[in-house]
């Protein structure tokens, strides 16, 4: 048995996360990936970028502090491999590449600014074997602060994927044109039309929060009607009431409304009655990609 720890840094539009995972290799058995630690910092870069076109000096300083903290945590965990990926906010920031260079100089952490298709591919590489079966069709919906990544799975394989600039932080700041919604609707309808039954897999912090609120057991699905009733409930509350009455963090209490709208729209346009929430996202995909890179290195050395 060989045990290592990998680190994944996900720099999103709403929050920055560090996932430390324990990778357990056993001879003759599937490799196990166990989540050991998850740290989330709600810096909300998207508010900067989508409003002004660049990352503010204040948030750049906060990012440097966060990356230094993440580096120390990875050292403490004896992380042997790590990768940091930045998504919508940093790739759209006029000073994104400059900030990434400064962060690498000050913290030693190199940031890979990935595009929407790369993001969707990394997310799709996560281990969904328990859900994606050959006789079922799924629409994978990952909702972030700046974008929503969609992937269609059929016959156990990825069919197509696309990234749309529809995210919770953009919606909060009224920065999503109606044409963007129409484009996403058309894409979902076109890609799911060939199939009689489509189910949705939801990814992201908001759908995880919704699932936790439901009280359902892991592996269970949330129905479209449950999500509709939840949406009506949270809309009836003010943000302050969501924080107090529903025990939400302040940085969750505002974005959860537009996030629920996105998931509901995806379910409606794909005619899906259920959404599954396996708690898998970009961080998990980064961990899996790190392991695959290691296997490729071993193969090349032989």
From TrEMBL:
It comes from the Bacteria. SUPFAM superfamilies: Actin-like ATPase domain (SSF53067). Residues 40-290 form the Ppx/GppA phosphatase N-terminal domain. GO terms for molecular function: pyrophosphatase activity. This is Exopolyphosphatase/guanosine-5'-triphosphate, 3'-diphosphate pyrophosphatase. It comes from Ulvibacter antarcticus.
């Amino acid at each position: 048995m060989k045990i290592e720890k990998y680190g994944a840094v996900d720099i999103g539009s709403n929050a920055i996360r560090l996932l430390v995972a324990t990778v357990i290799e056993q001879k003759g058995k599937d490799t196990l990936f166990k989540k050991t630690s998850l740290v989330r910092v709600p810096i909300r870069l998207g508010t900067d970028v989508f409003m002004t076109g660049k990352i503010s000096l204040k948030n750049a300083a906060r990012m440097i502090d966060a990356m230094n903290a993440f580096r120390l945590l990875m050292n403490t965990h004896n992380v042997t491999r790590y990768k940091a990926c930045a998504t919508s906010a940093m790739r759209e920031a006029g000073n994104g590449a400059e900030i990434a260079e400064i962060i690498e100089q000050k913290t030693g952490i190199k940031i890979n600014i990935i595009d929407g298709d790369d993001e969707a591919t990394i997310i799709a590489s996560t281990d969904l074997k328990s859900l994606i079966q050959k006789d079922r069709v799924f629409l994978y919906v990952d909702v972030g602060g700046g974008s929503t990544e969609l992937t269609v799975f059929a016959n156990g394989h990825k069919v197509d994927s696309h990234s749309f600039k529809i995210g919770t932080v953009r919606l909060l700041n009224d920065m999503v044109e109606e044409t963007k919604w129409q484009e996403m609707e058309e894409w979902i309808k076109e890609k799911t039309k060939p199939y009689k039954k489509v189910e949705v897999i939801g990814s992201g912090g908001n759908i995880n929060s919704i699932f936790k609120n439901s009280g359902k057991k892991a592996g269970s699905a949330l129905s479209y009607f449950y999500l509709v009733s939840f949406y009506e409930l949270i809309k009836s509350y003010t943000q302050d009431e969501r924080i107090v009455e529903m025990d939400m963090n302040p940085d969750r209490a505002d974005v959860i409304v537009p996030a629920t709208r996105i998931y509901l729209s995806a379910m409606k346009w794909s005619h899906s009655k259920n959404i599954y929430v396996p708690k898998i996202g970009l961080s998990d995909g980064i961990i899996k990609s790190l392991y695959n890179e290691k296997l490729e290195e071993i193969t090349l050395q032989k």
